[in-house]
What we know:
- The complex is a heterodimer.
- Chain A is an alpha/beta fold.
- Chain A has helices at residues 3-6, 44-55, 78-84, 87-91, 102-119, 131-148, 166-173, 191-197, 220-229, 250-253, 262-265, 325-363, 384-390, 394-403, 431-450, 452-456, 469-474; strands at residues 123-125, 156-160, 177-181, 202-208, 233-238, 257-260, 280-282, 294-297, 303-306, 367-368, 379-382, 410-411, 420-423.
- Chain B is an alpha/beta fold.
- Chain B has two domains: 66-72 and 349-455, Alpha-Beta Complex (Aspartate Aminotransferase, domain 1); 80-343, Type I PLP-dependent aspartate aminotransferase-like (Major domain) (Aspartate Aminotransferase, domain 2, 3-Layer(aba) Sandwich), CATH 3.40.640.10.
- Helices cover 37% and strands 14% of the residues of chain B.
- Chain B contains 13 helices and 15 strands.
- A seven-stranded mixed sheet of chain B has the order 2-8-7-6-5-3-4, sandwiched between helices. Chain B has a four-stranded antiparallel sheet with strand order 11-12-15-14, with helices on one face.
- Chain B is globular.
- Chains A and B meet through helix 2, helix 3, helix 4, helix 5 and helix 6 of A and helix 1, helix 2, helix 3, helix 4 and helix 5 of B.
Amino acid sequence: MLIFEISRPGRHNPGQAPSATPQAGDIPPQLLRSRRPALPEVSELQTVRHYTRLSQKNFSIDTHFYPLGSCTMKYNPRACNTYAMLPQFLARHPLAPVATGQGFLACMHELQEILKEVTGMQAVSLTPMAGAQGEFAGVAMIRAYHESRGDLQRTEILVPDAAHGTNPATAVMCGYTVREIPTDGHGGIDIGQLRAAVGPQTAGLMLTNPSTLGVFEKDIQEVQQIVHAAGGLLYYDGANLNAILGKARPGDMGFDVIHMNLHKTFSTPHGGGGPGAGPVGVNARLLPFLPVPVVGRAADGSYHLETEAQRPQSIGRLSAFLGNAGILLRAYIYARLLGRDGMRRVAEFATLNANYMMVRLRQEGFSLAFPDRRATHEFIITLKPLKDATGVTAMDVAKRLLDKGFHAPTTYFPLLVPECFLIEPTETESREDLDAFISAMAEIAREARVNPDIVRSAPHTTPVRRLDDVRAARELDLRWKAAG
Amino acid sequence: MPFIPHTEADISAMLAAIGAGRVEDLFDEIPASLRGAGLSAVPEGISEMEIGRLMQERAEADGRYSCFIGAGAYEHHIPAAVWQIATRGEFYSAYTPYQAEASQGTLQLLYEYQTMMASLTGMDVSNASLYDGASALAEGILMSIRAHRKGRRVLVPKVVHPVYRKAARAIVRNQGIDLVETGYDPASGSSPLSALESGYSEECAALVISQPNFFGVLEDVDALTDWAHDHGLLVIACVNPTSLGLLKAPGEWGSKGADIVVGEGQPLGVPLSSGGPYFGFMACRQEHVRQMPGRIIGRTLDRDGNPGFTLTLQAREQHIRRSKATSNICTNQGLLVTAATLYLALLGPEGLEHVAARSHANTLALLDRLSGVAGVERVFGRPVFHEAVLRLKSPVAEVLRAMEAQGILGGFALTDDYPELGECLLVCVTETKTAADISRYAEQLERILSKRRLDPPCAQKM
């Protein structure tokens, strides 16, 4: 039932709003609403019950193992939420003088310093509000750099064919054309093809490392030399930073600019689709172009916001204020709870969990996309052999996993690997939970052979059965309308 | 080890299964010269108790002020249920509903949100959120260019939020799109048709109309909308959602209504929180839905014929369409939309109208109280919504510092963004302020201004 179907005309929550005000004063009648919006009229209890019940229809990290590849669905510590929501932090207006925000800004400045250190970059701006906006900031800085040198012939951004869709979409938003570089047989970027693709038109290469194929780009130093020798810059997509946190740094690999997904690596909540936070880091040559504001620290130890005035070559602002400040606070708290050693353990145990699952799934008869490679924090299996043998697809297996109490891994991405699962367990899952998932996978594979219909018609236990996506797109129903 | 459940026995058994001697061996594909990153600038980890104390101290250092700043972020009462429910783990720790059958809670909520926003804005459809108001305006501009198909210029009056204009420029400029700024009438603070006429050219695709505008001034939206449509332009409305409890929905502006509506969702249940996370909203006419960026939820049927909800029109999005997507946006602001949906359900149509009306009445009460104060004058003659520009006889920055010393954040100084206005400030009063708060503001301002008139500046102690 929808909240609108619970609604009854004339039901109010007078305790949640001020009482009626006599007149709208001086506002001319032609500027006023002619009829009230069709918002629900429900009691507070009805609201609380309705949305509590809706929440119970979700799978989430707090309720289910959620090995969604490339999304780093790790535990979100409650302390991060509690201390980011202290009343003074919540009440502070973004345009309040910096003198009234020294405690908040101290956290932001320290976060900048921590992120610089773990990535090996020279400077960080916290303002991008998600990974894709971080990508935008990064590519816009690459463009600003070339333009500042009068190097206007660079019109092309290179991306691996297995890249996240945000990479090519971002390059186009920055006014570039996109050229895809194929992957070699071991999941790495095809060096010969890269060498052939670079030239005076190359603005840069966007690379995720470990890659979207779940393997470390072993030839990164050679890639770096090829792109830089051609005059291009190297962009690091931080989607998979969790795999190397504290173990290796993009700055040391020769990347000029990076973004980090704090909602992945720094465990801020995914919130059913955000908010994220996508800070960017740069090396010295891109320093002047960082998006503003950047948190600065004066000689007397006080904090301030550096704006266009101090950074005239900045690519500018990407948000009205300081980006997703409250999410940045959560990331800061997480970083302080982990500390230096805790960060190293993130990569270590994320990698241990992934390699363990990969080996165990292979033992159970599943095919690995890159059997000669180590898993990083994630890995890919292909269910093509199962499909060929039984007709059961990766989508069917994903839906059957829901019946068994597991959120499905990422399916059908990257597109290069047929019928694939991209599986990322994260470091916060216990061995027992990994084993339970592996058992469920083995059981589904057995079901596919003996009773494929039960898999093909899954899910059976979720609040709804398999949904008709084609109908959703053909017969658009994007809002509720009152009957009659 | 914080948040890592492994026992020594687990580690040994897992390494044995893998066939590795040490965890370190699992990193052997990373070239040795790149391994072993320095983390010396990262402090040692601390306990939850210690971080709790540190954060409490920092929060207390920031103190609490009586806030009369608006300028794009507004202090409103947030019902307790909003964040208690929004931070339930099932909402807080889920992600984008890729597996629709396991995400019906989030999906249905977003469908309800889309319904509420479509009704509030008077549009046919809403998306499931963008990052914030400024980036939503940028996306609205890009969308208008796609929908218009010919023009590459958009008229953006100077009375649109100055940072929105900056952000929009930063986001659209690399695609060869021009934002043409048009002036305002110095007497009324609104956008005259004459200014639009002088900015207009054949290459224009759209006009941005901000209601209320950055000065709080109410525009003649009917005339502006009709002018734009008569010139073949699309209308992008940039609105405060609280104001729509009271003001005409953009879908009803002029004879045809706005085409795209964007804005900052923060006033709907989202705390000020130093600027984020907030959420941007976007709604449009049905004919433009395939040009809309961001997630969109649709209702459909499951295999048993029962209704359910799913992500739809994904062929617009980056994960399907890659370089031909409508935007690069992926992760958006789902949790904030969860809060906004709860907020709108708890307030209902009457509650939202009362919030808007009381906020506006409180602002009028302050303006009335200040009308007799020497050294303060209202700058613009037209009606406003819950925010207004005041000109002071003394330097605004100094007056605001003196107010701050009294625990009052007196408004937003306009001197940097609108130097032509002189010593002006933008002041906002919402429903959270009592008559006593308003009196105290007026008394303090009066005291500070009169002190400055009596004493020479060198005698000031601030």
